[in-house]
Amino acid sequence: MDFDALELIVSITLPILGGIWGIITSTRKYELTTQLRMELLSWYTETSRTMIDVIHYISSGLFYENSFVQEKTALLSKLSAQIEIGRFYFPNVLNKNGYGNEKPLAYRGNRHAILEFVYTFYTVASKSHNVTDNKILWDLEREYTSAVFSVIDPRDRNKKHKRYTNLAIDENLHYNNYLRQRNGK
Fold first, then answer.
1. Is the pLDDT of residue 7 over 90?
2. Which residues fall within 8 angstroms of residue 30, CB to CB, at 6 or more apart?
3. Closest CA to 134 of 37, 31, 28, 63
4. Is the pLDDT of residue 30 over 60?
5. What's the rounded Cα separation, in Å, for the pair 152 and 40?
6. Predicted confidence band of residue 58 (pLDDT cuts 50, 70, 90)
7. Per DSSP, what are the bridge partners of residue 110?
8. pLDDT of amino acid 125
9. H/E stretch holding 16
10. Residue 5 — very low, low, confident or very high, per pLDDT cuts 50/70/90?
11. If DSSP codes are grouped into helix, strand and coil, which group holds residue 154?
């Protein structure tokens, strides 16, 4: 085989292999991103459900009754566990000032903002004996949801899902627009 033929084969083969490699790495990146989003969404869901349960039990007054101590303890314990699990997704923020260096590895520095919302919620709920604290708890839950929302980025996820799966979610579909479309107006 002469040098010109070899050069032609290489010049044709390399771009093809590069294209295949690009597809493989792009697909793998999408799969890993999707997997992490699903893990985060699962952790978020469990935490949010627990927070909302606490809020509703406080609203009903049941949270403060002696007969509810076992359930209250279970809910607060679950939130505490979710904070610990969350450390693996949102590790503490390490500061140059060495804050917390004497603590075990996972507890050095300051809590990540997302975990701080859950921790503050836990603290208020565990010390609360007042239904009016529900406004604070709702605000904390909403901030927590918004912080996780910014990480999971569902709008970006929807664009990627549309590209890879042809499943389109209309992000501009407001309730009133839906009703107008449904009624043909």
1. no
2. 160, 164
3. 63
4. yes
5. 7
6. very high
7. 93
8. 95
9. helix 3-60
10. low
11. helix
Interior/surface letters 23-48, b for 16+ CB within 10 angstroms, e for the rest = eeeeeeeeeeeeeebeebeebbeebb
Structure tokens at 149: 């929302």
What is the rounded CA–CA span in Å between residue 121 and residue 144?
10
Q: How many CB atoms lie within 10 A of CB 100?
A: 16
- Residues contacting residue 111 through CB under 8 Å, at least 6 positions apart: 92, 93, 119
- The candidate with the shortest Cα–Cα distance to 40, out of 173, 179, 147, is 147
CA nearest neighbour of 50 among 86, 87, 76, 88: 76
d(CA 156, CA 160): 6
- In angstroms, the CA 92 to CA 101 distance is 12
Mean pLDDT calculated for residue range 118-123 = 97
Q: Are 54 and 77 in contact (CB under 8 A)?
A: no
Give the pLDDT score at 176: 79
Number of H helices, E strands in the chain: 6, 0
Q: Which residue has the tokens 């910014």?
A: 150
Residues belonging to the chain:
185
N-to-C CA span, the chain: 71
